[in-house]
Design brief:
The chain is mainly α. It contains six helices and three strands, in the order αααβαββαα. The protein has a three-stranded antiparallel β-sheet. It starts with a helix and ends with a helix.
């Protein structure tokens, strides 16, 4: 089981290295292989608790759907909204820090939801309180301040997918 976890971390690190270097030269392949091997051996016990989850086609399907939906729908709508606020002075800006509860349980799920919120223009996670199960989010146009209602508008869609992918 430990070897499988190390292989998974190695594979993810190697693919990430090659994608970000944008090169398949022999030097980059060898360097990526060595760096990924060391990473896999050192960090697999921390990063992979249940290696079998990685081989679930259902999880991969949800991850792919989420990636496309996030990039094409959520990001586009948020960018358009922020651009309107920048270019049109009459569009209101109603900033506030709102308390947004979350119901994902794993560290990966919490991180994925927090990153999704932060990477979407107009919202930034300022703090994650795992004990209370809430994010404190700066929202450029806080339509509601009540936590449950804020969750519906800020993070509910992200959580729906992150639960299916990581839990």
């Amino acid at each position: 089981m430990k070897a499988l976890g190390a292989f998974i971390v190695f594979l993810l690190a190697f693919v990430t290295y090659i994608v970000f270097t944008g090169s398949t030269s022999p030097y980059d392949i060898v360097t990526g292989f060595v760096a990924a091997l060391i990473t896999g051996l050192i960090f697999s016990h921390i990063t992979v608790k249940n290696p079998a989850k990685v081989f679930s086609p259902r999880r991969w399907l949800y991850a792919i759907i989420y990636a496309f939906k996030y990039i094409i729908v959520y990001e586009t709508l948020a960018h358009v909204d922020v651009i309107k606020r920048i270019l049109h002075p009459k569009v209101p800006v109603n900033p506030a820090v709102v308390k947004v509860p979350f119901y994902v349980k794993t560290g990966y799920g919490i991180t994925a939801v927090a990153n999704s919120i932060t990477n979407t223009p107009g919202t930034v996670v300022l703090e994650v309180d795992q004990n209370e199960g809430v994010f404190y989010v700066h929202w450029i146009d806080a339509k509601v301040l009540e936590p449950v209602e804020a969750r519906k508008q800020v993070s509910e869609a992200f959580e729906e997918y992150c639960k299916k992918i990581f839990e």
